[in-house]
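Sample 1 of the test manifest.
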Amino acid sequence: MRMLGRTAQNLFWLSRYVERAENMARLLEVGYRMSLTSRREGGASEHLISMLRAAEMDEAFAERHEVADVDTVAYFMMFDPTNPSSVYSCLQAARTNARSVRTAITTDMWESMNGAWLEFSQIKPRDVRGAKLLGLLQWVRQRSHEFRGALLGTILRDDGFAFLQAGNFVERADNTARILDMKYYVLLPRSSLVGGEIDIQQWTLILRAASAHRSYGHVYHDRYKAYNIADFLILRTEMPRSLIYCAHFVRDNLNLLAKLYGRREACNDAMDDLLKLVEGTNMDQIFAHGLHEFLNDFIDGNNRVTDTLSASYNFY
Amino acid sequence: MGENTPFDEMYNADGSVREPYRALSEWLAEQPEKGLALMQADAEAIFRKLGITFAVYGSEEGTEKVIPFDVIPRIIAANEWRKLSRGIEQRVKALNAFLYDVYHRQEILKAGRIPEKLILNNAAFCPQMMGLEPARGVYAHIIGVDIVRVGPDEFYVLEDNLRTPSGVSYMLEDREAMMMLAPDLFQRSKVAPVETYPENLRRTLESVAPAGAGRNPVIAVLTPGIYNSAYFEHSFLADQMGAQLCEGQDLFVDGGKVYMRTTTGPERVDVIYRRIDDDYLDPLTFKPDSMLGVPGIFDAYRAGNVTLVNAPGTGIADDKAVYTYVPEIIEFYLGEKALLNNVPTYNCTDVEQRAWVLENIAELVVKEVHGSGGYGMMVGPTSTKAQHEEFKKKIIARPDNYIVQPTLALSTCPTHINNDVAPRHVDLRPYVLVGDEVRITPGGLTRVALEKGSLVVNSSQGGGTKDTWVLED
């Protein structure tokens, strides 16, 4: 049976929103931990604001709150229905997309998505503080894993699968790039040097946000170093949240679509352009060019993949 | 009709168990204490997890609700069902013949069997349908007939829902849940299957595809979208039939043909099971401000390039004022006596009948001619004096807007209430498919009024549902 353009769109965004909810939780966890370990007066607030800036949510936050502390930032990122990127909004949007394509996803996927939304929408923000906040952030990650598991375990490997997978990894690439970029925005205390203790501590938290602090050791057999960490999250093909891994994954799924539909589309070319950024380069070149600039180029290229994909397959 | 103690489907007046309920009665006696309550809790969890919800209009919080499901099935004997289904088949055949006639030569009006004014001045009459030839001459393909029982052998038809009857997904999911909850009870009984409905629906829709369609007609279910109260059902049926679930924006008309927008471009659609009301179907033909429909779809239908199911304009045959004439309609087209009774209905535009109605309003049921879902109605015996007076005024102001019927003592069925079993009033909506043949799913949806003594079974008014069993010989 042929697929409606709208269905393809809903599937793509269903996966994106689930992944985004997960990454919002990851980002908030990093921000929260950074703020706990800050030794400077007012440092907690700065860390949280830099995290919001990396996620491009600092302005929206400033419109709603005067003070950036753990409570206001956690509310804004987790529960605020007026923040379109809050975990609440992401899960709601994911569930709405799932409901629209109820016939194109499996019962297991629907139950996982519906269950996550029903549970989350019952939670009262004021009940979630301190240690409970970390517990809830973990819960969000786990529900995202559960949804992905249901998807991989039950859905047919057809065009719907390709749209879901592409959405998942386009979003993940975007989020990894933003988490890395956060480091750029974190102001180092004046007395400490790049590569100093606090610098390393911040990089470590970024690794943690990508659930990569243990696997780092398996790959590098070395203590945490900024160079390695950036390499790990950008160029290592065995790291499932690295930019290159995500890009390869999206490429494979766009190729699957081209194969199923019997023709290449503009999105396949946009994908090749994106791949050129991360293939045939190394960290020396990236740092020389500027990490922030590199990440911006990547995010733009990644957005072009979404735009061309939407046009190629009649999303509306 | 209408004795003081309503007919109970499980127990005779002397307390003995009626034959069709014997296995159920034994099974109930064996259930451990709290067994039914646990089952009830399981059932609710199943329904919520599956997202089997309906929206209640006008309630802000929790707009999606789960219809209460009662874990005790309602049982109909094989011979009872044979009688019922013969009566239903007769009715739907006659009503389709009536629709064909009304939209063509109007013989029944010429013969003076139904007042012309009642049809031609009726809001449900659709002049755009005049002279149109639907595939196989069928107008109402999917029908839900509302039936109540008042005695061992006494059934009455309350309404023939010929527009877009809903609830069939509950019939299917209730069975699914019941089999999960009480497989041992099924093993002791021979229950006719209902699972064939989606397949039969597909066959029915294929059988009315336009002549130009290929061997495998493309079928779409047209839904108003995820915020519609019956969205779950729309997606459920599309899924079960392997049809495309579309919203208005997914379809367009080009050169008098209907297409859907797919990932590879436009694809022709042959049959549309539309769950959008006539008024919203096509802004070019009906309500011009409709955002739900598809511009030009009615012209494509007129041109015979697509089949709409049900046809627009079927409402003229299930209009509450036309309802009174159904026995007449059956006789006129089939030359047979109606096998199923109509509820006697008083006509308030008649001076004498109106006077009697106003006098006896406390004993009667008043329904708005165009109302549905239990809204705009009053059940005399369970209403207050003030409500009686209010409806009297309404009837006097607009006698043509109301029909009045005696309060029927709907039969009761044992129902699980607060960890106990108590009789509650029920009705029955069997689902009928009309295409190359008439297909009636054994049983249907039983709705139950969960409040003690209440006669209103609508889900919007606190009603629940039961799995409905037709026993096989």
